Structures are given as C-alpha cells and as structure tokens.
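For reproducibility, we list the full input for the adenine complex.
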Amino acid sequence: MSLLTIELLTLFPGMVEGYFRESMLARGIEAGILEINLRNIRDWAEDKHHRTDDAPFGGGAGMVMKPEPVFAAIEAVKKPESTVVYLCPDGELLTQKMASELATAKHLILLSGHYEGIDERIREKLVTREVSIGDYVLTNGTIAAAVLIDAVARYVPGVLGEEKSLTQDSFTGNLLSFPQYTRPVEYRGMRVPEVLLSGNHAEIERWRAQKRLERTRLRRPDLLNKLSQEQ
Ligand code: ADE
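The corresponding predicted structure, in tokenized form, follows.
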C-alpha cells in the first residue's frame, strides 16, 4: 500500500506521462510509496462520439466540460477518504503550506478542467477543494495538476533523498532559501564566502538564517508580513 495515491483525471494524460516517469517522483513510485494514476476522462464518455464538452447555456465563447463523463470518472475512483481537488484559475492559491497539508491525505483526486470551464454542478457536488497555481490562465489544468503533484510529493516521506532539505526550502517558514555554493572555492575570481569554509556549524547556521531574511526582505517583503501575522 502506497502512502499516497493520486488519481489525475484529465483529457490529456499524455501531456504529463513523461514528466512522472523522468522526474524525482519516479523513485517514490518505484519504491511503492507513491501511486499516480493517469485517467482519461474521455474513457467515461458514453455517447458514440465520446463527447466530453458542449456549448454553454446562455451563449458565449468556447465549450464547457459536460457533467456526465466527469461524474462517472470521479465516482469510479472515489473512496470515502478521497479529497477531490479541481485545478482552476479561480481557486485558492497553491502555497508550500497547502502542499504540505495535502501530502497528509491518503487519496487525492485531481480534476483538470479544459475549455471555458466545467459544468458548475461538478464543482458543487464533487469537488472538496479548488486550487490555482498562480494568477494567470493556462489552456488546461493538466500542467497545473502536475505542479501540484510535484509540490505535494516532496512531502511524502521517502520521495526526496534527504528529508532535511524540506526545512531549508524557500517558503518554509515564509522565508526564501539561502545562497548555495559548491567546488571550486574560487571560480573566475569569485570566492565562496569564508564562513562556509570555516567548519563552524553554528556560524554557518547564523549566516544562512541571516541570508534567508535579507533575501526575503529584498525580494518578497510580502512574506515577512505573513511571518509576523502568523506569530
Ligand atoms: N487552469 C487554467 N489556469 C489555471 C491555473 N492558473 N491554475 C490551475 N488550473 C488552471
């Protein structure tokens, strides 16, 4: 039994197949910690043309995803403990905190929308959470779902090599990350900061904490406001 099973319902499973095979998530999948099932919503379209969309009532541009195939697809994979997430530009903004929360779920169903949207009755009846990956509009939610899966999977124990790296990530504790260096000590006249070569771990920790604050203040002062609100 995997720790987390994710069902991704989409009209374009091929868009992200290679991604899950090639990324670091493949390790978690091979180890049986993580299960990701790509499901083509079209497989649940029952009419002879396998239609999944139709014109919007009231008129207007584009097409809307029909309720029947989506209801059938979700009902086919749903369990009592499932969280059903719909990816859409008008959802709640994805954050690191949300990713860590979603990683504690046992069973996630991600629904990727297309065209001008999906029939509202799907959202009302089946969806438990609506998530956007940013204030811009994509042609469909499949890549957004892959982004969410990647961010969530990093919190599933065993998916990352070193769990420690999670605590120093950008956004953990609402701070950006600190600068990193590797060999050589000097490259094109640029030297690695001395403190990192000192072997003094307390000093290094202090330097890193200070850099995280400096960077956040400079690049994302909005995060520091969040920090003081949460304390
Ligand atoms: N579908 C289209 N745009 C999206 C976005 N920004 N986030 C999530 N799903 C989407």
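The domain at 170-230 is CATH 1.10.1270.20 (Trp Operon Repressor; Chain A). The mean pLDDT is 94. Both points were considered when choosing residues for closer inspection.
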